[in-house]
Sequence to fold (600 residues):
Amino acid sequence: MRLEADDALDRVKGALGERVTDAHLNHGQVDVTVEPANLVEVLTILRDDIALGCRFFTFLSAVDRSTFNFDDDNEQGGLEVLVHLYSPEKIWHVNLHVPLDFDTPVCPSITGVFKGAEWHERETAEMFGIHFTDHPNLVTLYLSEDFEGHPMLKSFKLPARSYVKDWPGAKDPDEAAAGGR
Amino acid sequence: MSKTERTLEEHELIQRIEGDGQGAFVESYDAEAEVMTINMGPVHPATHGVLRLFLELDGETVMDCKPMIGYLHTGMEKECEDQNWRGAVTIVTRMDYLAPFHNEHAYSRAVEKLLGIEVPPRGVYIRMLMSELNRLTSHLVQFGTQGLDMGAMSAMFYGFREREIITDFFEMVTGLRMNHGYIVPGGVWEDLPDGWQEQVANILDVMPGRLNEYQDLLSENPIFIERTRGVGTITAEECDTLGVTGPIARASGIDWDLRRDMPYEAYDELSFEVPTQEQGDVYARYQIRMAEMVQSVALLEQIVDQMPDGDYKNMDPKLTPPPRSELNRSMEAVIHHFKLVTQGYAVPKGESYFAVESPRGELGAFVVSDGGTSPYRCHVRDPSFYNLQSLPVMAKGGLIADLIACIASLDPIMGGVDR
Fold:
């Protein structure tokens, strides 16, 4: 009972209607854009609708598109939560994009729909600084409690990459600071 | 007065654990309720890596179990963003370090989807050859450590003996025993060396007999059965909500294998079975892995028989460095080589997800490209991360000794969990 990508897209549009702002095909998978307020409702429909059957939760993560090289120079990217699901019976994938406000990123927790998302949300929260409301236990997963910053944001530079050592063979200070280049 | 404060006063054996700052993870003993809270790990011989479990014990019974991870977190996903598309292969291969080929495989397929390129048939078959051999090495380690944790130390020696022949073959082909960086976007990095058939034939000669030996060693062993039957059960529904895949899900009756159900490479041209069990306990998971090794050997025989000739990687000069002989003659080849080494190739804008069936379950890579020469974002869905989340479900209500059996049967790879 394999569901072809075009049919899947039609069904998604039919079942979700106004709740999604955009739906299109991307490399054989359905890409859907959802506002945070509608996320839980949309996921519940995708999981419980027999015609869609996306009951398998693949992963939840986020992308920081603030330095993304858009085609349109005026376009400014922000934070986006990604949720990937697929249907084991109908064999089709759906990828949900949830655009968030960059300065105060808040997203509803999906642990009520998919229990397996608990660790994912904890990881995403500490890595991207996203707050997941209604999460049962939103404490850090990988990082220590006193870690400062959110490492996966593009503004977080790895110390090993951002600091260039002074070039010891330099004759004047400018040359040394530029690492001999 | 809170429970913790009272016990602090009453008992001097209480010890505060550094670094949590929450006060919730304090080792303590409540004399009234006879409940002891204690840390297992992060460094413990039975936790298979730096896994820390916070246990609440009533005598020998596990009342609660909280896995605490992050001791091996090195920010590999962030590191990928600083590499070029080829270089990121060397990072992802280090995530699930017992299944390096599967990591590379998932990542390379996701990038190939964005590039819109095909892999030549020989490249496809070499990928399957290495993946199936890798499944054998990974399951052999699991077999050995499972036996070791159950007190059957000889299983460890046997498991590693066979693994050694296969890692020798990996070394012969890729130059490395682990973390090969061999499967790259476009195909594989090198062709198989001369004499590979004899090496694989040797492995395939030895394996079926040895697998039977293991069956005699553990499968019918009354002590082993006593320790594993009905221990650490998990139902199919629990597997589904937690995203558990691979041998653990198949041991609970979920008939799902990406190689058969979403065929990639040329798995649809090969015939194999997907073993399943219904019990969902430690013994069922052990049996699934044993049966999977038999299937892998059957797959390997077909792969060797059908190995096609021809190119082993996509020969597009914009993607693959030219052969050494070309560099002496062709100016164009030198330019391509220079561009590839200094910058790498650019990948069209977009994002894609691709998953392969690793020894531990669905291993997927999600990559985003902004049209540049390095991944904009690379997220890896590692099966150990999901499988470990199910540990509390398995361990609650059991004995500490059963918990050890559960961890061994989960086969978590902390490099993959923490990434």
